[in-house]
Amino acid sequence: MNRTKEIKIRLDETELIKLNALTKESGRSRESYLRSLINGIVPSNKPSKEYLEVLSELRHIGTNMNQIARVANKSSYIDYKKYSDNVDLLFKDIAKIRVIASQGKPIYKKE
Known about the structure:
The protein is mostly helical.
């Protein structure tokens, strides 16, 4: 999209601090953050390092489960130990996701 229109807004120190904090948490520029708000979308915070690590673990587990399924389909044999270990890892990661998801925080702090 070709953006040729420019606006200037004035903020007090507190408003600027809040805007900078929100943009930092979202991983967006101020311009991108404000455009999202104008379009009725409140940008979410960028994912935490913990969350990204859990996603990586889940991808690894998914790959392992696919490999187990391929072997089972070809040979009619299931490595139950490997399968059970992956199921255990999966449930541990689901528990981690629940903890991360329950750690929500308000966008604005009460002053």
